[in-house]
Design a protein that fits this description.
alpha/beta; Rossmann fold; six-stranded mixed beta sheet; 5 helices
């Protein structure tokens, strides 16, 4: 059986200053660093005796979360650009208020782009898919994935065998610092044991 532990990065500066996250490269706040430390300590207890591997987005808020967790587990992250949050184009570096006032196209379908130079949900899905497949084929029995809310939403949908069009009638939202536990049984059965568990922070 394979265990996939997905961790949404902890509190970032953009969670506190009204700015857009996306591909803007924000650091963790001090609270975020404390949250990551708490996650690392608890995972060290849970994973004692196991030999995990850890993948992480290369954006600083996810990378820093992974680094702090990795200090407890004796792990270095495999950084993957494909695990970045959805790219919102020219909205990067702007405030959430600016986003609302300058929105080019409302997001109705998975092919809509909020900004013409950004990614649609399908674009982000297609970017993630090869990396997802690689992670699922990793030979380790315990795999940690540290990434972002929107991209983890797609990761979970892929894990459940859904298509990107499922977003037209359903969605999955996590919280900063949430820890999710996915199980892949030897018979191929996929199970989400828990999602966005905040007891770790």
């Amino acid at each position: 059986m394979k265990h996939i532990i997905a961790i949404q990065h902890t509190q970032s500066v953009h969670h506190t200053n009204g700015m857009v996250g996306s591909w803007t490269d924000w650091d963790l706040t001090e609270l975020g660093r404390t949250q990551a430390d708490n996650i690392g300590r608890k995972l060290k207890e849970e994973l004692e005796g196991q030999d995990p591997v850890m993948y992480a987005s290369d954006l600083k808020r996810a990378k820093q979360t992974a680094e702090i967790i990795g200090e407890h587990l004796g792990l270095e992250s495999i950084l993957r650009r494909e695990l970045r949050e959805r790219n919102l184009g020219r909205c990067c570096g702007q405030s959430v208020q600016w986003l609302r006032e300058n929105l080019e196209h409302p997001e109705v379908t998975v092919d809509d782009r909020l900004f013409s130079d950004g990614e649609s949900r399908r674009d982000a899905w297609n970017r993630l898919r090869p990396c997802y497949e690689e992670i699922m084929k990793d030979e380790h029995d315990t795999i940690l994935v540290v990434a972002h809310g929107d991209i983890l939403s797609s990761f979970f949908a892929m894990f459940q065998g859904l298509s990107v069009e499922a977003y037209h009638h359903a969605d999955i939202h996590g919280l900063a610092g949430g820890v999710s536990h996915l199980l892949l049984f030897d018979n191929g059965h996929h199970c989400i044991k828990r999602i966005s568990d905040m007891s770790y922070v």
